Amino acid sequence: MYVPINNGRLFERKISGDAYAMVGYVQLDDLEPLEGPSYLVTFFDGYPEVHEYEKLSKSSKPSAYNISNVDNLLTEQVWNSVTCDLAGSSRFIPVLPEEGCFILYSASNRPLFSSLYTSMPDDCWVDIKDQTLFAIEAPIKTQGMKLNQVLSEPIWPHYDGRMFALNGLTTAARENLLAARKLMFSYIDQQLSEAEYKQKLHSAPEVNSMITGRYDEQYHQFLKTLRAHCEQQGMDHNLFEKPYCERAEHEVMKSLCSMTMKEVLELPSKHRSRGWIDHSR
Question: Which residues contact 196 (CB under 8 A, 6 or more apart)?
Fold first, then answer.
């Protein structure tokens, strides 16, 4: 079985030597790909299609799937070798599953879009509209950016014209990240003692692995300040744990992060200590 990719945007990068990686956003009408198994994606004659072949290849789910983003997943040894041009082994992560929209990521030993370029660049971009593939100018500069960072920029077009920033974490990793953030706030808000906090961290290693700044009081203060600003703006402070966010939300969140971090760093020490957890007790 195969289905056409109706719309989307894809970014392909030369990683090293003959290794290439691709990420992007696609819309499918007649297929809900599973998260984990690999599929064959082809671009023959400029028409992108997804072929179900995971039952034949029996590809294993990456070992770190519960804590992974696309950069981690592309380095795991779970990718099938595809010998024909314009075809690659690919996987999917849902971002708007109710509308058939997915992150597509792929690793291959040859460029997938070579037919669109007279000389193949190290980074290239293509759009898919009405099941047809064509090259576009780069919407942003990607030098020095990881693929997950490229996904997090609000440059991915929905078929209704809106632009989205995408979360390149797997579904399991998003759930663990949200659980980690909720656990950290339980500690920051003194709903948990330090002993209880440590016990919960040790009992849930996949949640534990997603936590940054476990005992960093300045980072805790930053999170509290960010949460307060988001509440004032009527926004969810867990926005970046969601599968996607619209351009406007993304830009507001980025400005809030920049503003609140600056505020926290500039606070006098006597004010920074207010409301923090007293670990001496």
Answer: none
As to burial, measured by CB atoms within 10 angstroms (0-12 exposed, 13-18 middle, 19+ buried), residue 4 is middle
Region at 73 (left for phi over 0; alpha for psi -120 to 50; beta for the rest): alpha
Secondary structure (DSSP) of 50-99: EE--HHHH-PPPPTTGGG-BHHHHTTSS-PPP--STTEEEEEEEEEEGGG
Note the pLDDT tens digit of each residue in 187-206. 999 999 999 999 998 899 88
H/E element, 8: strand 7-16
Q: Tokens representing 183?
A: 């656990």
The pTM for the full model equals: 0.83
Q: What is the pLDDT of residues 162-172, one digit of tens each?
A: 899 998 988 88
- Which tokens sit at 58? 């029996």
